[in-house]
Design the sequence.
Protein backbone atom coordinates (compact mmCIF):
# COMPACT_ATOMS: atom_id res chain seq x y z
CA UNK A 1 0.00 0.00 0.00
CA UNK A 2 1.36 3.40 -0.98
CA UNK A 3 0.82 6.02 1.70
CA UNK A 4 0.89 9.73 0.98
CA UNK A 5 0.39 11.40 4.35
CA UNK A 6 2.13 14.58 5.52
CA UNK A 7 5.42 13.99 7.35
CA UNK A 8 5.10 10.20 7.09
CA UNK A 9 8.40 8.52 6.23
CA UNK A 10 9.33 4.93 5.50
CA UNK A 11 12.72 3.24 5.78
CA UNK A 12 14.05 -0.30 5.87
CA UNK A 13 16.03 -1.79 8.74
CA UNK A 14 19.04 -4.10 8.34
CA UNK A 15 16.74 -7.14 8.26
CA UNK A 16 14.70 -5.82 5.34
CA UNK A 17 11.68 -4.83 7.43
CA UNK A 18 9.90 -1.60 6.52
CA UNK A 19 9.30 0.87 9.34
CA UNK A 20 7.01 3.92 9.38
CA UNK A 21 7.77 7.18 11.17
CA UNK A 22 6.28 10.63 11.54
CA UNK A 23 9.19 13.05 11.23
CA UNK A 24 8.94 16.82 11.78
CA UNK A 25 10.69 19.64 13.65
CA UNK A 26 13.69 17.39 14.25
CA UNK A 27 11.58 14.77 16.07
CA UNK A 28 10.84 11.25 14.87
CA UNK A 29 8.05 9.00 16.24
CA UNK A 30 7.61 5.45 15.02
CA UNK A 31 4.18 4.04 14.12
CA UNK A 32 3.92 0.32 14.85
CA UNK A 33 0.30 -0.20 13.79
CA UNK A 34 -0.30 -1.71 10.34
CA UNK A 35 -1.48 0.59 7.53
CA UNK A 36 -5.17 0.27 6.71
CA UNK A 37 -6.22 -0.57 10.25
CA UNK A 38 -8.12 1.69 12.64
CA UNK A 39 -5.17 1.60 14.98
CA UNK A 40 -2.92 3.02 12.28
CA UNK A 41 -5.03 6.15 11.86
CA UNK A 42 -5.10 6.73 15.61
CA UNK A 43 -1.35 6.14 15.92
CA UNK A 44 -0.60 8.50 13.03
CA UNK A 45 -2.77 11.27 14.50
CA UNK A 46 -1.19 10.87 17.92
CA UNK A 47 2.34 10.95 16.47
CA UNK A 48 1.54 14.03 14.37
CA UNK A 49 0.13 15.82 17.40
CA UNK A 50 3.20 14.91 19.45
CA UNK A 51 5.74 16.23 16.95
CA UNK A 52 3.75 19.42 16.37
CA UNK A 53 3.82 20.07 20.10
CA UNK A 54 7.55 20.59 19.67
CA UNK A 55 7.18 23.16 16.89
CA UNK A 56 9.57 26.10 17.14
CA UNK A 57 8.00 29.26 18.50
CA UNK A 58 7.68 32.16 16.10
CA UNK A 59 6.54 35.65 16.96
CA UNK A 60 3.43 36.63 15.02
CA UNK A 61 1.89 40.08 15.63
CA UNK A 62 -1.75 40.18 16.65
CA UNK A 63 -4.44 40.83 14.09
CA UNK A 64 -2.76 38.84 11.32
CA UNK A 65 -4.20 36.07 9.16
CA UNK A 66 -5.29 32.79 10.79
CA UNK A 67 -2.53 30.47 11.97
CA UNK A 68 -1.27 28.06 9.36
CA UNK A 69 -2.01 30.35 6.40
CA UNK A 70 0.36 32.13 4.06
CA UNK A 71 -0.58 35.50 5.56
CA UNK A 72 0.27 34.20 9.01
CA UNK A 73 3.62 32.94 7.74
CA UNK A 74 4.45 36.30 6.16
CA UNK A 75 3.65 38.11 9.42
CA UNK A 76 6.00 35.77 11.29
CA UNK A 77 8.71 36.38 8.69
CA UNK A 78 8.38 40.18 8.93
CA UNK A 79 8.90 39.92 12.71
CA UNK A 80 11.92 37.57 12.41
CA UNK A 81 15.51 38.73 12.78
CA UNK A 82 16.31 37.43 9.30
CA UNK A 83 13.99 40.13 7.95
CA UNK A 84 14.47 42.93 10.48
CA UNK A 85 18.25 42.61 10.04
CA UNK A 86 18.00 43.69 6.39
CA UNK A 87 18.68 47.31 5.40
CA UNK A 88 15.59 49.52 5.68
CA UNK A 89 15.32 49.97 1.92
CA UNK A 90 15.50 46.21 1.36
CA UNK A 91 12.85 45.61 4.02
CA UNK A 92 10.51 48.10 2.41
CA UNK A 93 10.94 46.64 -1.06
CA UNK A 94 10.62 43.03 0.06
CA UNK A 95 7.59 43.68 2.29
CA UNK A 96 5.81 45.65 -0.44
CA UNK A 97 6.20 42.85 -3.01
CA UNK A 98 5.23 40.05 -0.62
CA UNK A 99 2.17 41.95 0.64
CA UNK A 100 1.10 42.60 -2.96
CA UNK A 101 1.28 38.84 -3.54
CA UNK A 102 -0.85 38.17 -0.46
CA UNK A 103 -3.54 40.51 -1.80
CA UNK A 104 -3.82 38.58 -5.05
CA UNK A 105 -7.07 36.57 -5.45
CA UNK A 106 -6.56 32.82 -5.50
CA UNK A 107 -8.58 32.75 -8.72
CA UNK A 108 -9.36 35.71 -11.01
CA UNK A 109 -13.02 35.83 -9.96
CA UNK A 110 -12.58 34.65 -6.37
CA UNK A 111 -13.01 36.98 -3.37
CA UNK A 112 -10.53 34.85 -1.41
CA UNK A 113 -7.01 36.26 -1.21
CA UNK A 114 -3.83 34.24 -1.30
CA UNK A 115 -3.09 35.38 2.27
CA UNK A 116 -5.75 32.92 3.47
CA UNK A 117 -4.29 29.95 1.58
CA UNK A 118 -3.41 27.15 4.06
CA UNK A 119 0.29 26.30 4.00
CA UNK A 120 -0.58 22.64 3.60
CA UNK A 121 -2.21 23.44 0.23
CA UNK A 122 0.37 25.92 -1.04
CA UNK A 123 1.98 24.62 -4.23
CA UNK A 124 4.20 25.64 -7.11
CA UNK A 125 1.03 26.41 -9.07
CA UNK A 126 0.26 29.29 -6.67
CA UNK A 127 3.76 30.73 -7.07
CA UNK A 128 3.61 30.32 -10.84
CA UNK A 129 0.27 32.16 -10.82
CA UNK A 130 1.84 35.08 -8.93
CA UNK A 131 4.69 35.23 -11.44
CA UNK A 132 2.47 35.02 -14.51
CA UNK A 133 0.12 37.76 -13.35
CA UNK A 134 2.99 40.21 -13.79
CA UNK A 135 4.29 38.64 -16.99
CA UNK A 136 3.78 41.99 -18.75
CA UNK A 137 6.68 43.24 -16.62
CA UNK A 138 9.15 40.32 -16.42
CA UNK A 139 11.41 42.08 -13.92
CA UNK A 140 8.52 42.59 -11.51
CA UNK A 141 7.36 39.01 -12.10
CA UNK A 142 10.78 37.63 -11.22
CA UNK A 143 10.96 39.84 -8.12
CA UNK A 144 7.75 38.22 -6.93
CA UNK A 145 9.32 34.82 -7.42
CA UNK A 146 12.56 35.84 -5.70
CA UNK A 147 11.03 37.32 -2.57
CA UNK A 148 8.36 34.65 -2.17
CA UNK A 149 11.13 32.07 -2.43
CA UNK A 150 13.07 33.89 0.33
CA UNK A 151 9.98 33.80 2.55
CA UNK A 152 9.37 30.10 1.94
CA UNK A 153 13.06 29.17 2.35
CA UNK A 154 12.95 30.85 5.76
CA UNK A 155 9.84 28.80 6.59
CA UNK A 156 11.60 25.56 5.61
CA UNK A 157 14.57 26.45 7.81
CA UNK A 158 12.18 27.03 10.71
CA UNK A 159 10.43 23.71 9.98
CA UNK A 160 7.15 25.50 9.35
CA UNK A 161 6.72 23.87 5.93
CA UNK A 162 8.23 20.75 4.40
CA UNK A 163 9.54 22.20 1.13
CA UNK A 164 9.81 25.44 -0.79
CA UNK A 165 7.40 25.24 -3.77
CA UNK A 166 8.94 28.35 -5.34
CA UNK A 167 12.06 26.31 -6.17
CA UNK A 168 10.03 24.47 -8.81
CA UNK A 169 9.17 27.71 -10.64
CA UNK A 170 11.66 29.21 -13.08
CA UNK A 171 12.11 32.96 -13.56
CA UNK A 172 10.92 34.49 -16.81
CA UNK A 173 13.58 35.05 -19.44
CA UNK A 174 13.83 38.51 -20.91
CA UNK A 175 16.38 40.97 -22.20
CA UNK A 176 16.94 44.29 -20.51
CA UNK A 177 19.70 46.85 -20.30
CA UNK A 178 18.46 47.92 -16.87
CA UNK A 179 18.20 51.59 -16.04
CA UNK A 180 19.07 53.97 -18.83
CA UNK A 181 22.73 55.03 -18.78
CA UNK A 182 23.12 58.77 -19.20
CA UNK A 183 25.10 59.91 -22.24
CA UNK A 184 27.54 62.86 -22.02
CA UNK A 185 25.09 64.97 -24.04
CA UNK A 186 22.31 64.21 -21.56
CA UNK A 187 24.57 65.24 -18.68
CA UNK A 188 25.28 68.55 -20.46
CA UNK A 189 21.56 69.07 -21.09
CA UNK A 190 20.82 68.60 -17.38
CA UNK A 191 23.64 70.98 -16.45
CA UNK A 192 22.28 73.66 -18.78
CA UNK A 193 18.86 73.46 -17.11
CA UNK A 194 20.27 73.28 -13.56
CA UNK A 195 23.36 75.54 -13.22
CA UNK A 196 25.94 75.50 -10.43
CA UNK A 197 24.40 76.80 -7.21
CA UNK A 198 21.20 74.75 -7.49
CA UNK A 199 20.42 71.70 -5.43
CA UNK A 200 19.76 69.67 -8.57
CA UNK A 201 23.25 70.40 -9.94
CA UNK A 202 24.79 69.43 -6.61
CA UNK A 203 22.88 66.13 -6.61
CA UNK A 204 24.04 65.39 -10.15
CA UNK A 205 27.66 66.17 -9.28
CA UNK A 206 27.69 64.00 -6.14
CA UNK A 207 26.39 60.96 -8.00
CA UNK A 208 28.40 61.52 -11.17
CA UNK A 209 31.79 62.40 -9.66
CA UNK A 210 31.57 60.01 -6.70
CA UNK A 211 29.67 57.19 -8.42
CA UNK A 212 27.44 56.74 -5.38
CA UNK A 213 24.01 55.21 -5.19
CA UNK A 214 21.12 57.43 -4.19
CA UNK A 215 21.00 55.71 -0.78
CA UNK A 216 24.52 57.05 -0.15
CA UNK A 217 24.08 60.43 -1.82
CA UNK A 218 21.43 61.40 0.75
CA UNK A 219 23.66 60.59 3.75
CA UNK A 220 26.96 62.15 2.69
CA UNK A 221 28.10 65.36 4.37
CA UNK A 222 31.17 67.37 5.37
CA UNK A 223 31.89 64.99 8.25
CA UNK A 224 32.81 62.33 5.66
CA UNK A 225 35.47 64.54 4.04
CA UNK A 226 39.08 64.73 5.18
CA UNK A 227 42.12 65.96 3.27
CA UNK A 228 40.23 66.09 0.00
CA UNK A 229 38.96 62.51 0.27
CA UNK A 230 35.44 61.38 1.11
CA UNK A 231 35.24 58.16 3.13
CA UNK A 232 32.05 56.19 3.87
CA UNK A 233 30.57 52.70 4.13
CA UNK A 234 27.99 52.05 1.37
CA UNK A 235 24.47 51.64 2.73
CA UNK A 236 23.88 48.57 0.56
CA UNK A 237 26.60 46.55 2.31
CA UNK A 238 26.58 48.23 5.71
CA UNK A 239 24.95 45.30 7.51
CA UNK A 240 26.93 42.56 5.80
CA UNK A 241 30.46 43.97 5.63
CA UNK A 242 31.77 47.25 7.00
CA UNK A 243 34.18 47.94 4.16
CA UNK A 244 34.64 51.68 3.74
CA UNK A 245 35.48 53.15 0.36
CA UNK A 246 37.55 56.28 -0.18
CA UNK A 247 37.06 58.56 -3.19
CA UNK A 248 39.03 61.72 -3.97
CA UNK A 249 36.94 64.86 -4.37
CA UNK A 250 37.87 66.23 -7.77
CA UNK A 251 38.33 70.03 -8.12
CA UNK A 252 35.12 70.41 -10.15
CA UNK A 253 33.06 68.64 -7.46
CA UNK A 254 34.71 70.70 -4.72
CA UNK A 255 33.79 73.87 -6.61
CA UNK A 256 30.16 72.81 -6.98
CA UNK A 257 29.86 71.88 -3.28
CA UNK A 258 31.33 75.23 -2.23
CA UNK A 259 28.83 77.12 -4.41
CA UNK A 260 25.76 75.11 -3.36
CA UNK A 261 23.36 75.30 -0.40
CA UNK A 262 24.22 72.37 1.88
CA UNK A 263 23.10 71.20 5.32
CA UNK A 264 25.15 70.76 8.47
CA UNK A 265 25.42 66.97 8.28
CA UNK A 266 24.02 66.28 4.81
CA UNK A 267 24.97 67.91 1.55
CA UNK A 268 21.45 67.35 0.22
CA UNK A 269 18.42 68.58 2.19
CA UNK A 270 14.72 68.79 1.42
CA UNK A 271 12.90 72.08 1.06
CA UNK A 272 11.95 71.77 4.73
CA UNK A 273 15.55 71.47 5.84
CA UNK A 274 15.38 67.73 6.52
CA UNK A 275 17.54 64.93 5.10
CA UNK A 276 16.10 63.09 2.11
CA UNK A 277 15.06 59.45 2.24
CA UNK A 278 16.47 57.37 -0.62
CA UNK A 279 13.05 56.92 -2.27
CA UNK A 280 12.05 60.53 -1.68
CA UNK A 281 15.28 61.72 -3.26
CA UNK A 282 14.78 59.42 -6.25
CA UNK A 283 11.32 60.88 -6.88
CA UNK A 284 12.58 64.44 -6.42
CA UNK A 285 15.50 63.90 -8.80
CA UNK A 286 13.19 62.32 -11.38
CA UNK A 287 11.21 65.58 -11.40
CA UNK A 288 14.41 67.55 -12.00
CA UNK A 289 15.20 65.25 -14.93
CA UNK A 290 11.74 65.90 -16.37
CA UNK A 291 12.34 69.64 -16.03
CA UNK A 292 15.48 69.22 -18.12
CA UNK A 293 13.55 67.31 -20.81
CA UNK A 294 15.13 63.97 -19.83
CA UNK A 295 12.23 61.68 -18.86
CA UNK A 296 14.33 58.62 -19.73
CA UNK A 297 16.97 59.51 -17.11
CA UNK A 298 17.04 58.79 -13.38
CA UNK A 299 19.38 58.75 -10.40
CA UNK A 300 20.13 55.05 -11.00
CA UNK A 301 21.57 55.70 -14.44
CA UNK A 302 24.14 58.23 -13.21
CA UNK A 303 26.19 55.57 -11.40
CA UNK A 304 26.34 53.60 -14.65
CA UNK A 305 27.23 56.76 -16.55
CA UNK A 306 30.07 57.60 -14.16
CA UNK A 307 31.57 54.13 -14.52
CA UNK A 308 31.21 54.26 -18.31
CA UNK A 309 32.81 57.68 -18.63
CA UNK A 310 35.71 56.67 -16.37
CA UNK A 311 36.30 53.47 -18.34
CA UNK A 312 36.23 55.31 -21.65
CA UNK A 313 38.78 57.79 -20.29
CA UNK A 314 41.21 55.00 -19.43
CA UNK A 315 40.40 53.95 -15.86
CA UNK A 316 41.68 50.47 -15.05
CA UNK A 317 39.59 47.66 -13.60
CA UNK A 318 41.23 48.20 -10.22
CA UNK A 319 40.50 51.91 -10.25
CA UNK A 320 36.86 51.28 -11.10
CA UNK A 321 36.60 48.64 -8.36
CA UNK A 322 38.09 51.00 -5.79
CA UNK A 323 35.84 53.91 -6.68
CA UNK A 324 32.56 52.03 -7.01
CA UNK A 325 33.09 49.57 -4.17
CA UNK A 326 33.14 46.47 -6.39
CA UNK A 327 35.03 43.43 -5.09
CA UNK A 328 35.58 41.67 -8.43
CA UNK A 329 36.18 42.81 -11.97
Sequence:
Amino acid sequence: MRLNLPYLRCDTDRHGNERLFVRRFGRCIRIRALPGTKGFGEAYSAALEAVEAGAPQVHVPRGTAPAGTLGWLAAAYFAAVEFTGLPAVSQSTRRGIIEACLREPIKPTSPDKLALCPLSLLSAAHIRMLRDRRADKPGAANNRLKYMSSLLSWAVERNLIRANPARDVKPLRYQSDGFHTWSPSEVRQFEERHPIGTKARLALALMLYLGVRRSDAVTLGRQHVRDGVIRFVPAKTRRSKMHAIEIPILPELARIIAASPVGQLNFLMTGRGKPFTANGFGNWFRDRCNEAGLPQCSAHGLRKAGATIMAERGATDRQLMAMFGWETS
